[in-house]
Amino acid sequence: MLPSDPGVRYIPAADTTDWYLPDEHLRWLTRHTVGEAAWPVADGALRELGTLVPQVIEPLARAADRHPPVLRSYNERGERIDEIEFHPAYKQLESTVLSFGAVRAAYAPGWRGLPERASRSLVTAMLSLLLESDQAVTGCPIGMMDAAARCLERNDPALAARFLPGIIDDTGNHLTVAMFLTEKAGGSDVGANETVATRAGDGSWRLSGEKWFASCAHSDVILVLARPVGAPPGPSGLGLFLMPRRRDDGTRNTFVIHRLKEKFGTHAMASAEVGLRDAFAWQVGNLERGLPQMMGMVNATRIGIATATAGAMRRNAFEALTHTRGRSTFGRRLDAHPLMRDTLAELVVDSVAGLTAAMGVAELSDRADANDREAAAALRLLTPLFKMHGTERARVCATEAMEVRGGNGFIEDWPDARLLRDVYVHAIWEGSGNVIALDVQRAIEHGALPGYLADTERRAEGVTAGGVVAPLGRVLMDALQRVQAQLQTLSTIEDADARQLPLRRVARRMAVLAVGARLAEQANQFAADTGSGRLGWIAARYLGRLGGEPAVAGLADDPSWLPHAEALLHGGAVPLDLASTAAQRTAAALSSPGTPLPV
C-alpha cells in the first residue's frame, strides 16, 4: 500500500467474486421451477454467469453508463446520416449478453444441449443475474429483441420467418429491435396518437408522424403503431407495422432522429425523438388488431420488468450485505447492530419476494404458452400487478441500499447511484403505476378476476393444509376475501370517478397477496427440502405488510430472530420453530380487530 492511501482498509471493497452461489433463493427456486431434467443446464449456465456478471458485465455496464451515446446527424459532406455512435463498451456488453443466449435460448432448441427451447422460467433466472448489473442494455435493447421475437412469431409467420433468425442470433450477426409507441399527442394514451400509415401500390406502407420517446432508435427493425388512412379514431384504429432502418437496396429509410434524450438514468441506452417521413414499412399481422398485438409485446416486456426489478433488488441487497459485513462502527461490525440488521432484513425480504414474483409470471407464461387456460387467466392480472409492485419496491430498495453505504453510496465511483437512477425508469416504461391500475380495472371488467382469485386461493389453501407456515394460509384467505369484497363493492358504484379513486391501492393489495401466497407456498416446500425455516420467516415478515407497520413490528421488533440474522440475511440453516413462531405472530397481528389493509 502506498503512503498516499491512508485508511483504505476501512472501506470494504465491492464483492466481484461470485454473485450466484451466495444467492440461496435463486439457486433453490430455479431448481424448484425448471425441474430436475433442465436443472443441470440451468445450474451450469448460472454458475458461469455468477462470475461473468461481476467480472465482465459490471465493468462494461459502468463504462457504457459513463460514456453515453452521441447522435451524429451529418457526415463531413453535410449529408444527413442520423447515426448514433456508441462507446465500445456498449457493443461489447450487448454481444456478450447475446452470445450467452439471452434471447436465442427461448426461441430455438439446442441451447446448451437442451432438446427443446429453454423455458421462460430458466431464461428469467438467467436474466435476473444479468440484470443485477446491467439494467440499461439487457433491460431495454435486449428486452426489445426478446419481446419482438415473440410478437412476430405469434402474429405474422411470414415476417417471423424473415427476421426471427437475425433477432435471436447469438453469433454477433444479430438484428436489433425497437418499438415506437408514444407521441406528444398521447403519451400513455396511445389511442390519441397521430402517426398516419398510407398503403402503397405494392402492398407495403408509408408511415408519417412524430414519435416522442423512441428508445433504441438505432435499431435495425422497429415496430411502430400508426393509424391507417380512413381508420377510426381511438385505440381500435391503430395498426402495427415493422419499419426497417434500411431498405432492401441498402438505402436509409426515410425517418430522422431529431435529438437524443438527456435522461435521468439508463444513460448507456439511446432514447430519441424521431420523425417519420413516408417511411417504408410492412404490416404486421391483422391490421385491425394493431394495438392488441403491440400489447402482447408490452406484456412480454412487463414480465421482463418484473425480472429487472428482481435483479435490481437482489443487487442492492447484496451490496448492502457486503458493505455491512466488512465495515466496523462504534466498536462492532456494522451488520451486528440491530437497527442495521432490521434494514438489511427489509432489503432481503424485498429481494426474495421480487424473484418469487418474476419466476411466478415466467412459470405462468410457460404454462399459458402450452395452452393452460387457468395459467393464462391468472397471467392476465398478475403481469401488470407484479410489474407495478416490483417497480415500487425496487425504488425503495435502491434508496435504502444507498443509505446503507453512506456517503460513498452517493458517489459515482460506487454502483449505488447508477442502480438507483436506472431502476426508476421501470415505473414509467410499459405503463406508470396509474396506467397499470387502470389496466387492472379493465382486465377485471373483462373477466380476468376469477383467474387471479383461483390461482391465489389454491396456493393459500395449500399453505393452510400444513407445513411450517400453515397459519399464514388463513391470513391469505381472509385478506383475499376482503379484497374480493372491496372489488365487488367498487363494481356497484355508478360514479366512474369514485370507482377509479381506490384502484392503485387495491392493485397494490392484490399484488402483495399474490406474491405472499407464492412465498408461503414456497416456504413450506423449502422447509421440506432443506430443513430450514429461512424462507418461512421471510414469508411471514413480508405478509406482515398486509397490516402495515404495526403488523410488521409484531415480528420485526421481537429480538429472538437476531441470533439467526447471519443465516436469515445471507442464507443458511434457520430453525423451523423460528419460522413457525413468525407465522403465528403475523397471523395473530393480522387477525386483530381493526387491522388495516396496506395503503
Summarize this structure briefly.
By secondary structure, the protein is α+β, with helices and mostly antiparallel strands. About 55% of the residues lie in helices and about 10% in strands.
What do you see in this structure?
- α4 packs antiparallel against α8 (338-369), α8 runs antiparallel to α9 (373-405) and α9 runs antiparallel to α11.
- The strands form 3 sheets. Strands 4-5-9-7-6 form a 5-stranded mixed beta barrel. The protein has a two-stranded antiparallel sheet with strand order 1-2.
- The protein is α+β, with helices and mostly antiparallel strands and 599 residues long.
- The relative contact order is 0.09.
- It is 54% helix and 11% strand.
- The chain contains 19 helices and 11 strands.
- The chain has helices at 24-34, 39-66, 88-99, 120-131, 141-155, 157-167, 290-326, 338-369, 373-405, 416-423, 433-445, 449-464, 471-491, 496-500, 503-530, 534-543, 548-556, 565-570, 576-591, and strands at residues 70-74, 80-85, 177-180, 196-199, 205-215, 221-228, 239-244, 255-260, 271-283, 328-329, 332-333.
